[in-house]
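Chapter review: from sequence to fold.
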Amino acid sequence: MTFIATTLLYPIALAALCVGAGLFVDRLSGGFLPASLLVTVGAAALIGLSQLTTYVSALAPATPYLFAALALAGLALARGRLSSLLAAMRARPLLACGPVLAYALALAPVLVAGRPSFSSFMALADSAVHMMGADYLVHHGQSYAHLDLRNSYGRFINAYYNTSYPSGADTLFGGSALLLRLPLIWAFQPFNAFMLASVFGPAWVLARRLAMAVPLAWLAALSAVLPALVYGYELLASVKEITALSMMMTAGALVVIHPRWLTGPARGGVPIALVLAAGTSALGPAFGVWGLAAVAVLAVTLVLARRSSRSSLSRAPGLIALAALVGCLAALPTLVDLRGSLQVASNIASTSNSGNLHTPLRTIQVFGIWLGGSYKLQPTGASLQVTHALIALAGIAAVIGAVYTVRIRAYALAGWIALTLLASLVVSETVTSWAEAKTLMITSPVVVLLSWAGVAAILALRPVAPARALGALLAAALLIGILVSDEMQYRSSNLAPTARYQELASVGSRFANQGPAVFTDFDEYALYELRKLDIGGPDFVYPPPALASAAGGYGDPVDVDRIEPAALQAYPLIITRRNSRQSRPPAAYDLAWRGDYYEVWRRRPDAPAALAHIGLSGGASEECRAIGALARGPGAHARAGSTLVAAEAPELVEVSLASAARPARWGHARSGLVMTVPGKLVASFHVPATGVWEVWVQGQIMPTVALAVDGRTLEQIGGQLSGNSLVPDTVPPRRLTLAAGSHTIVVDRGAVSFAPGARGSAMLDAIFLTPAAAPAAGALARAPLASWRSLCGRRYEWVELLTPAG
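The token string follows.
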């Protein structure tokens, strides 16, 4: 049901909100907006409204309902226009299908997988910030005084949204999704796909101004929505950039239809003001470079209007004043703290952190064709040669298209394109690779449209038959190049694990407001799911200062044994992944809940901090010496009657991957294997006793992999991913009865298919077994201080020195 609600009902509801708001703006501004711009102009209006409501914290929770009120008002005021729109859709179903097809292609990995998910997983954790921010801003507005800055959740919200970080896309997303009470984690990718699909409308307006016939304009608009670079950013859910792209293209479309509104009544400037304000709210002051391109063309057009009609020009001051007022109100939070907003933009533009980019992007990627599995990596072999050939064709077509645009006297459009490209070039030359990549992405649809203008120019040549043949071949090359590029990225996407996040959401509901909680897994999306627990992740970007020592750094595995016992007293809960290789929490914590993926440990209210806690990882003799050193140490007799408590290590049977038979092309990564091609791993292992054993698999496994023991299929593993490649994902164990002795295990990565993620992460880190009869909470051994030797001879995870009360 969640899948249907997020992928089908939500975009329909969001479209209704945007169309209703667009109709309201259209009625307010004089009724000149074409139907193809209602969605994006309506989205701009909703962004402006949500920026105001979340700026006034008391109004923030009303944001979803104010969205509905604005949309209903627009639908009521424009009942006649709505009827004509529905009639036009029936008359031109192909045009109406354009955005729907664009949405389906943008959301293809999730739709084909058939489960709620998002495709930005294991690429950047920025999506987690936007989920948190959207939820927080709609519930609390821009009020941050109550945040607990000792833990990760509060530090994340404060570091981003209390520093004038652009939030326009987040408030639109949060306000619309929460109107339907949807989990934001599952509505996030559909929202991104919707915003990208909304670009079809303005792209259609621009294509038609280029004198393209309806079928060609439809193909051009679809291509402008889905260039390889843009598609890659949508798969990564770059919500700020995708929303800004929609506003930039809408600004261009409003420039093109300027005769309808620029020299008319002052209210005609409301739509362009809202669009520019929405772009600024979504991307920050950096959107100004694209906004200035539109404003400059409009300014020149106004000045030239003096030659034809002084009365038209006399209305300009009113239009400019009203547009400025509306724009300032719609982007009020950004403008109120303009210094902070500019600082955020400057930090992004100058950051030396390249994020997930291994190398800077190539400028030629703006042509929308990139025959590789990722826009971040250069294609290889024949794919590289074909890519360069197709880009060369697109480049020639774009040059022809630029000349054609001037020849058909589309001067406003030509000016906007020229200034947009110039602005992008200037920005790219003055910022670091991270911001340059975003600039190339936002520019790509404009360049793609120019290439299709070249197709239109060729089709307009004489004689007709050769021109049509050449134009058709060029159009096919452009369209196929873009779609194949997108398909390759689609198959390389990593989808978020649905079942694990559903379980994490249940943890968040079950233990809500019982935190703060220590979270030992690296997964910053837990910040959203566990937002009511005020979680602290030692390996997050913003770790709790008292817990930071538990991880070696950002993204590294967490070792609770490194935390000073006193620092844990502030945390009633510890949430860990189920993993028999990982130490259980200190003795003060009891197992409160266990699921397939997670365990929740609750601290006993009367449990004091241990006097000392030492992790053990050596052999039995070394551990005995460490226990003795703790027992005889200077702090051991601080209190009479102190006790030693040790956590017994579970029995592990390791499966050696290094000695297993496997395909020669499988590579190595850390201690594991990268299953780069289809094939089988065959390994032997030995169990010491007959009984029920649990088989554990660790790794990042997106494509389906079959696991079999002694010829019996145990399970099909797929879509099992963790937060990053440094912390192996642990698949829930599978039980089977084994006789004492040797056994064989087979891991089979089947043939690459066209399923989403078929070329995604396929890394096998470890396989091991544990007895199923092992205590769920881990056995604890206790001994008086004087009898510490009684603990020797067994393997332990850690040992603690407790006071009598402990």
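Two observations follow directly from the output. The chain has a mean pLDDT of 90. The chain has 27 helices and 19 strands.
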